Amino acid sequence: MAAVPWTYEDIHIALEAIRGGPGGVVAAQTAAKATGRPGLTRQALSRAFRRACDRGWISERLSDITYRPPPPTTDTGGKTTLTKTPSTKTTEADDRLVPHLDVVRAVQGGARTLIDLANALDCSPKSAQQRADAAIEAGHTIALNDAGELVFELPRPETHVIPDVPRDGDWTKIAVISDLHVGSKHCFEQEIGTFVTEAHSRGYTSILIPGDLCEGNLRHHGFEYEVKAFGFDAQLQLLLQTLPELPGLTYHFCVGNHEVNSWWKSIGLRPDIAIERHAHANGRTDLLASGAMLPNMESAYLLLNPGDPETEIKVELSHTGDKKAYAMSYPLQKHVEAYLPGSKPHLLLKGHLHCWTAHDIRGVVCVQTACFKGQGAWERSKNMEPTNGGTLIDLKHEGRYFDFRVEPRFARPAPLVWTPIEG
Questions:
Q1: Of 332 and 36, which is predicted with more confidence?
Q2: Could you give the CA distance from residue 99 to residue 169 in angstroms, rounded to a whole number?
């Protein structure tokens, strides 16, 4: 018996039925009952969602299930059928979901000059120039090189100066939070606010964040069932609600693999600049992008209280794509070994691995920062237990002497309640 083709309405009904529920086989059974498809498997449901994405019916294949308007309909002898939108074209719905996506796709499709871009967009060269400038202003990594060609441009690393980091005598005071994963159902939102508020009350007004502020829209199996805020705008709004806005407090951040893989590699949006502009547009000038995105190496280079080389402090925020090792210090050791002569910072803050440890390695104070995301299905499948919390750090630089004090503030997950089955 031939399979019944999926319609836009079927996809809509299936998504509504499984939204917020468990995944896997249970989701397939729920969708089967809602759409009248007995025997529907989770593999068949996944294929249906992928095809719906290719046709423009949903905005992402399995992660971001924001609905798009149905494609144009065609009247064929009294029967109305859905017309498939070619995936190589840009629809009006795309433009509403991701501004300037038409420009990004044109450059991805081979447009190398303004004339090429104008032809791809069916507009004048002047209009193409204006639309390219708007895309660049919005944070997309598009640029005109010296030869006048349109290219995707990776920003180069640069040092960001933070001149007014608070001090207690000779000690410089900073606080660190990392891997927040705001938007995930497993994010410790309340604990983030508690840590930041406590740090601020103790005089720590510079908060450093080495990546993964948001959960993003990744596509590993079951991911969509662990996200409560879908899409860039929704997660950014939740991020602003989660991070306290306090007098004199500033957040200095680089992005991580979740932002880069979700928004830069897919639609060409540079997430660090986009996050900062989104925050400033909402009156939150306390979020400051401090990093650069290189292939598989999201980092930021900070210079605290500059002016005197004998007392200033160099800090690297790093979110490189390391794998967790048996010894938690191993990724830190390899990172320090890779420094070129003369490029060592005083302090390395390394995110991504969701664990905590601190060491002095070859003259660099190294802290593997913890996270504020609990254990989800993916972490359980990899036998990973995250360490949750933030870190307060005091630093003192006097010529060849560098002293540090590290105070981790761990947040313990709620204990599992074992409920006996009676009878």
A1: 332
A2: 49
The phi and psi torsions of 201 (rounded to 5 degrees) equal -65, -20
For the chain, which residues make up each domain, given as ranges?
A: 8-81, 98-152, 159-410
What the block records as the tokens of 280 is 């400033």
Span 33-39, mean pLDDT? 83
What 3-state class would DSSP assign to 45? helix
Question: Average pLDDT, stretch 315-342?
Answer: 87
In terms of average pLDDT, the best of 115-124, 135-144, 202-211, 338-347 is 202-211
Averaged pLDDT score across all residues of the chain:
79
Residue 128 in 3-state DSSP? helix
Find the range with the poorest average confidence among 59-63, 91-95, 375-379.
91-95
DSSP secondary structure letter of residue 252: E
Helices within 55-113 (DSSP H only) = 92-97, 101-108
The residues near 196 (Cβ < 8 Å, ≥ 6 apart) are 175, 177, 207, 243, 244, 246, 249, 390
Please state the φ and ψ torsions of residue 169, each to the nearest 5 degrees: 70, -120
For residues 272 and 259, the answer to whether their CB atoms sit within 8 Å is yes
DSSP characters over 5-35: PP-HHHHHHHHHHHTTS--HHHHHHHHHHHH
Q: What is the CATH number of domain 98-152?
A: 1.10.10.10
Q: Are 366 and 359 in contact (CB under 8 A)?
A: yes
Answer whether 184's CB lies under 8 Å from 25's CB.
Answer: no
Residue type, 325: A
pLDDT band at 296 (very low <50, low <70, confident <90, very high): low
Give me 231's structure tokens.
């899409």
Please list, in sequence order, all residues whose beta carbon lies within 8 angstroms of the beta carbon of residue 407, skipping any fewer than 6 positions away: 391, 392, 393
159-410 has the same fold as 98-152: no
C-alpha–C-alpha distance, residues 90 and 99, integer Å: 11
Give CATH for domain 159-410: 3.60.21.10
Is residue 232 within 8 A of residue 226, CB to CB? The reply is: no
Mean per-residue pLDDT, 307-321:
87
Distance between CA atoms of residues 184 and 228, nearest Å? 6
> Would the pLDDT of 21 be above 70?
no
